[in-house]
Specification:
The complex is a heterodimer of chains A (207) and B (118). Chain A has 207 residues and is an all-alpha fold. Chain A is 80% helix and 0% strand. In chain B, helix 1 runs antiparallel to helix 2. The chains are: A mainly alpha (207), B mainly alpha (118).
Chain lengths: 207, 118
């Protein structure tokens, strides 16, 4: 049964959800195609960053600007939020009730917003040290790459708020289920992009 | 909003499946934590020289990505064929464009740097 039940990549609702499980197949496959194209977009911005990492033009470089403690906290926040979204997915799949689903989604939202707060604080302290995007090619590339991920997280957070609103309005219907499953893929995907960011940008920059 | 569960008899199977999937997430976050902590600690205490450290960071990042795909996104070899192909082909394209760009631009930067003496 479990072999038959896998209709698309990612967590499947399973046959207990009947027609919702069938409806998920095409929708989630399409969303995977979007995710992969987004990955290509990110990879090109990464290439831009890597090729201009030495173009500091006499301005402040990675060592002067990056704060490893803050990045570490951001990493833990995003990783934990990926786990709590996983718990929300399980609450949806195994029908633990609307309260538990909304609870896990709310925890995820709080962690995501906290991540954004820390990231904005990072950018502000970089600005204070003279690390503005117009200072050098390196900084332009940095503020092309890292805030692009931040914008994705912000988009995901807004989407999450909309989903909670939909649950409050319509209950856990097919549209809501498919929305939660797509946002789960998006959220886990953003965590994977963040692995690349903290490794390529921050850790490699601070070696 | 909650449709009739068709397989009440399968409740035990579903419980087992739920435990399995819960453990998958727990394994995922445990492995990801270890794979995050090690490179951060190495960089923070500057425990290794430059190039080996970069290789270790890169290796840990790649393994952590695989862990996330496996345990959070549930990608395995039991996918429908074209789904896995989509992900693998995108990864191939990504790799070609990324490494090609970095190669060409690094080579260009090297050739554009004039030698100190004419």
């Amino acid at each position: 049964m479990s072999d038959e039940a896998i209709k698309h990549p990612g967590l499947n609702l399973g046959s207990a959800h009947g027609r919702d499980h069938d409806a998920a197949e095409a929708m989630l496959f399409g969303f995977w195609i979007f995710l992969m194209s987004d990955a290509i977009l990110f990879s090109m911005v990464f290439a831009t960053y890597v090729t201009s990492v030495n173009a500091t033009a006499g301005g402040p470089g990675p060592h002067a600007l990056y704060d490893i403690k803050s990045v570490f906290i951001e990493t833990l926040l995003l990783l934990t939020s990926s786990f709590t979204f996983g718990m929300a997915s399980l609450a949806l799949k195994y029908k633990h009730g609307t309260a538990q689903l909304i609870g896990w989604l709310a925890v995820t939202l709080v962690l995501g917003v906290a991540f954004l707060g820390f990231e904005l604080h990072d950018f502000a302290s970089m600005f204070a040290k003279g690390g503005v995007p117009s200072r050098s090619g390196f900084l332009s590339a940095f503020f092309d790459l890292v805030p692009l991920h931040g914008l994705h997280v912000m988009g995901g957070s807004i989407w999450l708020i909309c989903l909670v609103g939909q649950i409050a309005m319509y209950g856990v219907d097919t549209q809501v289920k498919l929305g939660v499953m797509r946002l789960a893929l998006f959220w886990h995907f953003l965590d994977i992009v963040w692995i690349a960011i903290f490794s390529v940008v921050y850790l490699a920059g601070l070696t | 909003m909650i449709e009739q569960t068709r397989d009440d008899g399968d409740a035990a199977t579903r419980n087992l499946e739920e435990r399995k999937e819960f453990h998958s997430y727990v394994w995922g976050i445990a492995l990801a934590l270890v794979l995050t902590l090690v490179p951060f600690a190495l960089v923070h205490w500057a425990a290794m020289p430059g190039l080996p450290l970069l290789s270790v960071i890169g290796a840990f990042a790649l393994v952590q990505m695989v862990v996330h795909f496996r345990f959070f996104l549930h990608i395995g070899f039991r996918q429908k064929r074209e789904d896995l192909l989509l992900i693998l082909f995108s990864t191939l394209l990504l790799f070609i464009m990324l490494s090609g760009t970095i190669w060409i631009m690094a080579s260009l930067a090297m050739r554009m740097t004039l030698p100190a003496q004419p």
